[in-house]
Amino acid sequence: MKNELDNKLMLDAYEKIHTHGEARQGRHYLDGIEAYTDHDGYTVFLEGHGVTLTLQFHNSYNLKYDNERQYDQFIRALKNISKGYETPGLERG
């Protein structure tokens, strides 16, 4: 199973889900991905397509999934979110 994650991509996708996603009970949802943090904000959680990613302080992470297909769908969704939504204050021109 793959074990290389682009932390910039993960954090960018999290920020865009938080900004553009639907908020429900402290969590945000966008394009099949759920994003939230722990109580102190140091741990980021991204879930979708059968994958759970826990991104911790100092960019360590825990990734859970059953098969490569789930992982590939999850990463593709995060890339689409990262590329498809604007970052506030950095609008394309």
Number of strands: 6
Strands ordered across the widest β-sheet = 1-2-3-4-5-6
* Shape summary: globular
What percentage of the residues does DSSP assign to strands (E)? 25-35%
End-to-end CA span: 39 Å
Low-confidence segments: none
> In this structure, how is the largest beta sheet organized?
6 strands, antiparallel
Proportion of residues in helical segments: 25-40%
* Sheet/helix structural class: alpha+beta
Mean pLDDT: 90
DSSP summary: helix tally? 2
Order of SSEs? HEEEEEEH
InterPro entries: DUF3081
Organism: Idiomarina rhizosphaerae
Protein name: DUF3081 domain-containing protein
Task: Describe what this molecule looks like in 3D.
The chain has a six-stranded antiparallel beta sheet with strand order 1-2-3-4-5-6, with helices on one face. It is α+β, with helices and mostly antiparallel strands. The N and C termini lie far apart (39 Å). 33% of the residues lie in helices and 28% in strands. A hairpin with a 6-residue loop joins strand 3 (33-37) and strand 4. Helix 1 packs across helix 2. It is built from two helices and six strands, in the order αββββββα.
